[in-house]
Design brief:
The chain is of the alpha/beta class. Helices cover 49% and strands 15% of the residues. The chain has a domain of 103 residues: 3-Layer(aba) Sandwich (Rossmann fold), CATH 3.40.50. It contains six helices and five strands. The chain has a five-stranded parallel sheet, with helices on both faces. The longest helix is centred in the middle third of the chain and has 22 residues. The two termini are 21 Å apart.
């Protein structure tokens, strides 16, 4: 197995436990992976700018302060990543996830996209820029196992 510590950024929806599933799978497989992610506390992510830099009376500026502050973390972690995994959920449109996927592609990062089959058409351009498209967290873990150690799952 590689001695390299692989940096994997987990972007996308925050309403399910897919990040925890990948973390558990990486740990169980003993993979040399360091996972990172955006702030997944929705309220903290939305309000960080005004909490830290002061209130805004206009919601547009409230949101902009938060987006700018969050972009420091997001862009830094994507730039540092070896692999970016972007999960598109079922319930909400994740415009931020699409933006992260585009940023990763523009930076030449290896991209793994995760979504349900019914979103294939809507995400066709995002998927075309990726190295792999999967539906489940365990598939991401198996991709990491193969890429890092060259081993396939037992059949």
């Amino acid at each position: 197995m590689s001695e390299k510590i692989w940096r994997v950024y987990l972007s996308g929806e925050i309403h399910t436990d897919w990040r925890d599933e990948i973390a558990a799978g990486v740990e169980a497989a003993g993979l040399p992976v360091r996972l990172s992610a955006p702030v997944t506390d929705h309220e903290a992510s939305d309000d960080c700018g005004v909490v830290i830099m002061g209130a805004e009376s206009d919601k547009v500026w409230h949101d902009r302060k938060g987006a700018l502050l969050n972009s420091i973390r997001t862009s830094t972690l994507i730039e540092e990543a070896d692999i970016v995994v972007v999960r598109f959920g079922e319930k909400y449109k994740q415009w931020n996830a699409a933006f992260d996927a585009g940023m990763a592609a523009a930076l030449g990062k290896k991209l793994v996209v995760m979504h349900q089959p019914e979103h294939a058409h809507a995400l066709k351009e995002v998927c075309a820029a990726s190295s792999a498209v999967v539906e489940r967290s365990e598939q991401v873990v198996e991709i990491l196992r193969y890429v890092i150690g060259g081993t396939l799952p037992k059949r």
